[in-house]
Amino acid sequence: MKLYYALPADDKKALPPLLPGEKKMYCLPYNYEDARNVNGFMLFTNRRIFKLRDGALLDTWDVSRMSSFSVEKMFGCSGLYAKVDGITTCLCLFNSGRNLPRYSVIVSSYENITQRGDDRVLVSNEPERFCPKCGRPFIKHTKLCPFCQSKGKIYKKLWGMTRGLRLMLLFPLVAAIISLVLRFVVPAIQRVAIDRYIIPRNIDGLQGFILVILAIIGCDLFARFISVIQSRISATSANRFTLMLRSILFEKIQSLSIASIHKKSTGDLMGRINNDVNVVQNFITNLLPSYLTQILSFILALVILIYMNPLLCLFVFIPIPFAVVFILLFRKTMSRRNIRAWVLARRTNAQLQDTLDGIRVVKTYGNEEAAVRDFTTNTGNQSRQDESNAKLFDTVFPFVGFVLRLGSYLITLFGNLWVFHGTMQVGELSQFGSYSGIIYEPIMQITSIPRNISAFSTSLGKILELLEEDPDVYDYSSPDYKRLEGHVSIRDVTFGYDSYNPVLEHINLEVNQGEMIGIVGHSGCGKTTLINLIMRLYDVTEGSILIDGVDVRAMSQNSLRTQMGVVLQETHLFSGSIRDNIRYAMPNASNEEVVRAAKLANAHDFIVRLPEGYNTMVGEKGYSLSGGERQRVAIARALIHNPRILILDEATAALDTETEKLIQDAIDRVITGRTTFVIAHRLSTLRNADKILVLDHGKMAEFGTHKELLDMQGIYYKLVMSQVRQQQESGK
Amino acid sequence: MEDMELENLFERRESVRLTPENAVFTRSEGGLISLRLSHPEAPEKEEEFFERVIPLRGFPITDPEQFISVREPDTKEKGRGAEIGIIYDLAEFDEAQQTLLRSELDRHYFTPELLKIYSVKEKFGYLYFETETSAGKTSFVMNNPYSNFRSFEDDRIFLYDIDGNCFQISDPSKLDKASYKRIEIYL
């Protein structure tokens, strides 16, 4: 992300000379002043801050007299604040979406300068969200600017992807051209039949007539044959193309780090795999050949018509300008009405989903009537709009059709006049009529072509963008699989999901093999983040994490994670049987191993009591397990491959005392011989912990045994006391 | 300081109702707002002075002058944005303080009025606006217009853009016809 913008020339002139030892560090735009838009700049050096606008120096601040830098996000804009000689001052106001992350870096940097005398220039790894050329935002989750992206580059890439399918993709085109030729040949043969045999009542030439009829039948058969082949081949090519695109996309997504996946939503990724692939495939295998043949047939028909009879050809074109103008004008109304109908339909759907999801709430508050009323209003609006649209469209389209037909009436009229005068033959007229029909077809499609092309290039862009993304957690070398022992040391680790906003700062931890470490702290203090770093779902920003003396970045992600057992806070069970879920990490585990893991996790008893035992289906469509049961299945899943390092993120949801005890026992049993990290919400979980780490706002606040921490009477002591108090109160 | 942080982890200050009897707002030296808070009901408590306070509207859209939460700045060092008290109705205070608070609130809730809409282009699902607002010429980009246009019962319309800005049309009937037509279909 850009942190040094170039100053405009006249602002540069207004800038006073730098002091000795002073260096320019950042230069950012600011956007508002006294409720007006402005184009000002803030220039930040290690010693001073300048505010410049329109060639004037508006303000200068001396950093040595400043403290407490902060950014405040307000409604509609954000501000940079600091204390100057102890008095809070607003330095400038800026656009939140564009500049808040940038100004946050400034705040961190000045914290470094004022508190630690560290004036390094910070860089931001945040991706730029705005097009460097035109300043407009990129399409969400991509680096594509709809105004500046080069189309040629995209199409070139697409061509590269079609390797192996090209012949198949070419065939629809060839087939379309063949059937196009046949469309032109048949009227020509018909003309021969009419002029040579039908009109002169040529009975002697019966043989010839039969031949001509056979030729027509032959052409028809051939056309159908070609079309069957074409459909079959394009079914194959379309599906192979989809398969190919989908599998490379899915493979790519699986290879991305959690960090880059988190930046996209599941919906967005699913959309790319499903919709975008379909749009691209449909365009390439269906729309493109059809557009090409239509253009071709239009040109061909035009040339033949002019060649046959230039004057009559003029009549074909008379209605076209009217029709085109009309269609283009009507397109606006049409799209407005369609959008409106779509909005109303969406509103009905949203309300429907909202109410059905919350049906319990509706019922408990006795609000059924209001819900019905709302729904009737929405669905009524929708149906009225749909009705009016349907009426209008069904009135207008036949009329457009009529206008287009005007040409053929003129042809019939004047053509027949010529026929009566003997300057034209009936067959010729009939052939002419058939060809003129071909010309009208593409015109009806004028409205959909630009829309389809733009939908195609957007989808294609989104797919390519995903394919080109670099995984940001790399396997640096190809390290060997090494059996872990479980000694973990965390050395001066600092980490932030965004580089300017550290979630963890200067964490130091030595954990011996087989120890159990409890991690506590209020929500948002970085507990889960620390766990994610140990699993190397993210790479640390500073410092290092060593397992058995080896930096985790030097281990392959696969070998690292297959030796860890993880129970996440939200226990996601996949659709499948309980057995499949337990042996997720080790698909070839024997039943004995599955049962052993389930017993360790205290899950065996409830599982065998289910009607279908370990074969019970769970997940989306299956048997719904209770929270405590799911958790125990998840613990069993984490244990199946006998990991040396176990990570438990305790669920926050309250469980009944008995279930809690079952889980507690399970945890006590499974930690023996493994290095265990437990994020605990119920401090009773930590009875057996060797050491407890208390995190506060990303910093190590306290570290020691349960007893040591109690003696300190710090945060941990207060947490324990408050939970004890709660328990006593609920006990009463 | 360490001790204070621990205190704050569990004990927040008790929010009080702010009235002219216990609260005096003044402009701070830095151009922001300071508050002097006394405790008439508990004479043993000392008068407090806050160099800077942040007023926030409880109902910014429907009742902008009522239930204003007055808070300490949300910084890392102190207070962590605790609420000092609530103004039930701005009208309880004298003119000068009302103006002072209103100016700070308006600065915080920056919603320029849309005066003219020159063009609205749709490309790739984004809407590109060229407009004239009370803050000057503004171009902005909106994604998903169907959730970023918000109409209220009193006919007001809010438009939210991709950068977290908000623009308002307080009376759509006063907007010129051409401008209104450009946004009509999204309403």
What can you tell me about this protein's structure?
The complex is a heterodimer of chains A (732) and B (187). Chain A has 5 domains: 9-116, PH-domain like, CATH 2.30.29.30; 151-309 and 448-470, Up-down Bundle (ABC transporter transmembrane region fold); 310-423; 479-563 and 645-656 and 673-732, Rossmann fold; 571-642, P-loop containing nucleotide triphosphate hydrolases (Rossmann fold, 3-Layer(aba) Sandwich). Chain A contains 22 helices and 19 strands. In chain A, a hairpin with a 2-residue loop joins strand 2 and strand 3 (48-53). In chain A, helix 7 (266-308) packs across helix 13. Chain A starts with 8 loop residues before the first helix and ends with a helix. Chain B is 19% helix and 40% strand. The chains are: A alpha+beta (732), B alpha+beta (187). At the A-B interface, strand 5, strand 7, helix 2, helix 9 and helix 22 of A face helix 1, helix 2, strand 9 and strand 10 of B.
Sum this structure up briefly:
The complex is a heterodimer of chains A (732) and B (187). Chain A has 732 residues and is of the alpha+beta class.
Element layout with pairings:
The complex is a heterodimer of chains A (732) and B (187).
Chain A: H1 9-14, E1 24-33, E2 36-45, E3 48-53, E4 56-62, E5 66-73, E6 78-84, E7 87-94, H2 96-116, H3 151-161, H4 166-198, H5 206-255, H6 258-262, H7 266-308, H8 310-317, H9 319-357, H10 359-364, H11 368-421, H12 426-444, H13 448-468, E8 488-495, E9 504-511, E10 516-520, H14 527-534, E11 542-547, E12 550-551, H15 557-562, E13 564-567, E14 576-577, H16 578-582, H17 591-600, H18 604-609, E15 617-618, H19 627-639, E16 645-649, H20 657-670, E17 675-679, E18 691-696, E19 699-704, H21 706-712, H22 715-731
Parallel strand pairs in A: 10-17, 10-18, 13-16, 16-17
Antiparallel strand pairs in A: 1-2, 2-3, 3-4, 5-6, 6-7, 8-9, 8-11, 11-12, 14-15, 18-19
Helix pairs in contact in A: 3-13, 4-5, 4-7, 4-12, 5-7, 7-8, 7-12, 7-13, 8-11, 9-11, 11-12, 17-19, 19-20, 21-22
Chain B: H1 2-10, E1 16-18, E2 23-27, E3 33-37, E4 48-50, E5 54-59, E6 63-71, E7 83-89, H2 95-108, E8 114-123, E9 126-133, E10 136-143, H3 145-148, E11 149-151, E12 157-160, E13 166-169, H4 177-184
Parallel strand pairs in B: 1-7
Antiparallel strand pairs in B: 2-3, 3-4, 5-6, 6-7, 8-9, 9-10, 11-12, 12-13
